[in-house]
Here is the input.
Amino acid sequence: MSEELYKKLAQAVIDGEPEQAEALAQQALEQGVDPLACINRGLMVGIQKVGELFSEGEYFLPELIIGADAMKQALDVLEPSLMGGQAREVVGRVVIGTVKGDLHEIGKTLVATMLTANGFKVTDIGVDKSPEEFVAAIRAADADLVGCSALLTTTMLQQKKLVEAIKEAGLRDKVKIMVGGAPVTESFAKEIGADGYAEDAISAVDLAFRLIDAPA
Here is the structure.
């Protein structure tokens, strides 16, 4: 019975059906099915398949967004039921946000959701955030990684200011820095001293695992 439920959860994510994923998660709790197993053997299987289909060009951004949303809806139901000793292993702690002067949210939110789905503990500080706000959040979350998004050529320089602010705060040896956004490039990331660049949510997850040297 549980195996069938895991498959249905995975399929709801693959098909991008948030309401179905949420209903199945609720059904699992009512039937006493292990919520952690639902996450690991159902939702994780589904979101990994969505990532594969996206990488292969069979899925595009809309499918990726709705698949991640289905995963998130089910997680919102299941995670409060996890017991203290049963909590999902945290792969790493990430602070993510959009830089000062930039109000774009969709890409940043999708990356945050995908990182959460893959076991990272994510603190999403939102949009239009100054380097000082990023630094404060890094300290508060005891973060291993920081992801900053810039969707405008005029706000890209804020990513450079963030790298500098992290250095000045004495946190550079502790935290890895990922940058992304439409105008951002690999060469720009290197130029400003970031640790890596990701062009989409799937590559951001891969990059995060590489930067903290954890098995994907």
